[in-house]
Amino acid sequence: MAESPTGKSVPEFDPTRAFDLTDRVAIVTGGSRGLGRAIAFGLARAGCDVVIASRDLASCRTTADEITAETGRKTLAHSFHVGRWDSIDELVDTVYSHFGRVDVLVNNAGMSPLYDSLDTVTETLFDKVVGVNLKGPFRLAALVGTRMAEGDGGSIINISSAGSVHPRPDILPYAAAKAGLNAVTIGMAHAFGPTVRSNAIMAGTFLTDVSNSWDMDAFNRRAQGFAAKRGGQPDEIVGAALYLASSASSFTTGSILTVDGGHP
Description:
Layout: E1 2-3, E2 9-10, H1 15-18, E3 25-29, H2 34-45, E4 49-54, H3 57-71, E5 75-79, H4 85-99, E6 104-107, H5 123-150, E7 154-161, H6 172-192, E8 196-203, H7 216-223, H8 238-245, E9 256-259
Parallel strand pairs: 3-4, 3-6, 4-5, 6-7, 7-8, 8-9
Antiparallel strand pairs: 1-2
Helix pairs in contact: 2-3, 2-8, 4-5, 5-6
């Protein structure tokens, strides 16, 4: 035991125990690809049973099977539409019926469709972007956070974006939605604390499957403005997610953790 400044004994930090997630249950939305897939594997390797949820049930099942084969952890594949509240309600009921609890929620599903100019953004596109990036994560966190607070607590992790504080014209609806998600993150920390922690990872540019369609020469030139001089690999977000999911972050709540390679 170590002694705190107040003279009271406090337990010394044990990294093995602090980051251990054995037998906890996690939901990862958008968990079959990109950052969500990397986070789902990371949580399972740390001991979590994992729910993989997205619109593509076949991809969810494939990822879930791969996770179980590698880690031996229990998994559940579930198809849902993050922009529709009735679909979210069904997801929550299914997970609690199957596992009986949720300890970690990772709101990762998102979208940022292309458009020619701001005046060509349709109402349908705007509503879809806000629905997937803000409305849905709000509803899912509200439902799961309420049950967590009534039970043993837990951790809500929202995947935000550097665009929320660097709102370029070509991603403006997305940036606005993610800025709203930052606000939701902080508000829910106060709504569900002290037993439920709510934090966000403000992710920069990661080289996921989406980047396969990019002009990489143009991107690499732009990336020279980043401190890291490159885009991130999906596995490079996992450490932040494990920190926020685990008791290692027991005094971290209402925080927006930046993982962006030094975005200018």
